[in-house]
Amino acid sequence: MQDPFMQAAIAQARKSLAEGGIPIGSVLVIDGQIVGQGHNQRVQKGSCVLHAEMDCLENAGRLKASDYRKATLYSTLSPCDMCSGTVLLYGIGKVVVGENQTFQGPESYVQSRGVQLEVLQDPECVQLMQDFIQQQPELWNEDIGE
Amino acid sequence: MQDPFMQAAIAQARKSLAEGGIPIGSVLVIDGQIVGQGHNQRVQKGSCVLHAEMDCLENAGRLKASDYRKATLYSTLSPCDMCSGTVLLYGIGKVVVGENQTFQGPESYVQSRGVQLEVLQDPECVQLMQDFIQQQPELWNEDIGE
């Protein structure tokens, strides 16, 4: 059975896909409750900074440092340099990654800075990305700066 | 005489201050032209992701990888983990920093990843931050995740 928080992140990814966007989703969990969710907004808002994790954190709003410390950020895909840097800025304690086969951010660096990182290698997350990249390789490359 | 692009970044910082916000500004320059400018939006938009550099990049819009590569990002203050990560994601070639006395992001790491970095140690940038931090230390701490 899938982690319910990763299920919620996947639901965000599917919502983005249905809107014509990039299928990556994210949720922020504090004390067992989802306090923010979001998805990639490159297509929908023409945004270059609202990756799923950033949109999720933005939707969670301004939080206290003590809340970030005990938070877990779920993302359907391994966080890139930008999103990983945001985890480090706010001292988010843990990141749960749907998959890192399609793309892998600076996971070792993030761990070396004290963040707990778990990779689920969820087949549904992998499939979402592989189908998308096959269909829209240019959009995907734009999203990761290539 | 001040660098005209840093002057533009400082103008953004002063605009933010006049709006009741955090006085950090940024501009993105490509081929000698400003293609985006912005300032911290924590107060103005209740944003936790729109640091000055992020707001600037968002305002510049969706750019090609080849444009980011030849771009220079100016910021009145040393970019934090989030903004530095964004520089790395997009492969922005150069960062010009107003000052790093008040706060220093992961400059060595950014340089080790191939980004050119120049610190101007501009007294006006230092003064802006020192006055602000003295007046609103809690807001400042929130902005850097402390």
Structure in words:
The structure is a homodimer of 146-residue chains. Chain A is an alpha/beta fold. Helix content of chain A is 47%, strand content 18%. Chain A has helices at 4-18, 42-45, 52-60, 65-69, 81-90, 107-112, 123-135, 137-143, and strands at residues 25-30, 33-39, 71-75, 94-97, 116-119. Chain A has a 5-stranded mixed beta sheet. In chain A, helix 7 (123-135) packs across helix 8.
Tell me the number of helical segments of chain A per DSSP (H or I, 4 or more residues long). Answer: 8
Alpha carbon gyration radius of chain A: 14 Å
The largest contact between protein chains, plus residue counts on each side, is: A-B, 33 and 33 residues
The CA-CA distance between the termini of chain A, in Å, is 35 Å
Average pLDDT across residues of chain A? 97
Order of helices and strands of chain A: HEEHHHEHEHEHH
The number of distinct β-strands of chain A equals 5
Shape of chain A: globular
The biggest sheet of chain A amounts to:
5 strands, mixed
Proportion of residues in extended strands of chain A: 15-25%
- What assembly state would you assign to the polypeptide chains in this entry? homodimer
For the biggest β-sheet of chain A, the strand order reads: 2-1-3-4-5
- List low-confidence stretches of chain A: none
Question: What is the share of helical residues of chain A?
Answer: 40-55%
Structural class of chain A: alpha/beta
